[in-house]
Amino acid sequence: MTICSSSSSRAVPAINNCTKRKNARTHNSAAFTPLFIRSMAAQKPLPSATKTVSSRKGPRSSSLTTSSPIKLLTRVEQLKLLTKAEKAGLLSAAEKLGLSLSTIEKLGLLSKAEEIGVLSAATDPGTPGALLSLSLVLLLSGPSCVYLVPEDYPWQIALQVVVALLSILGGSAALATSNFVSNLQKSN
Description:
- By secondary structure, the protein is an all-alpha fold.
- It is built from 10 helices and 2 strands; from the N terminus they run ββαααααααααα.
- Strands 1-2 form a two-stranded antiparallel sheet.
- A hairpin with a 5-residue loop joins strand 1 and strand 2.
- About 8% of the residues have low confidence.
- InterPro entries: DUF1118 (IPR009500).
- Keywords: Membrane, Transmembrane, Transmembrane helix.
């Protein structure tokens, strides 16, 4: 039994009055606590949430499309990539492997590159980020396969080796390509 002091001068054992006051204090003090969460139902919606989606077709105006277009050949010239490829001996190595200009022409590799959209991908600002994400996924898939696949049978070990090698080679190639495309897209 607790004794509550009332506004009068004598102390009266009043359990009901104490609990009522304590409940009133806790309900009133809840509005002043830092952990109090107000209901969001009474709040006004954000202005961005009330906008409707436009069904207009055509070019969108965004900060990415307002930037200057990427001039791929100009950037290749600035980086002197053809000179570097010549000095590195890449052209003669490709010719030794049977990849000459006439072979490229016979195989139709340039038209296939156009169909796939290699040049448009090289000028797309989102390509380096997508390639970087792909490289991270590939580089993480190798160790995760080695960790998750058991080593009970020889074919499981072979699977681990193949997946690890492919993910390391593919991830490294995607990372290098991401860096290369990013450097091509940079402006002075």
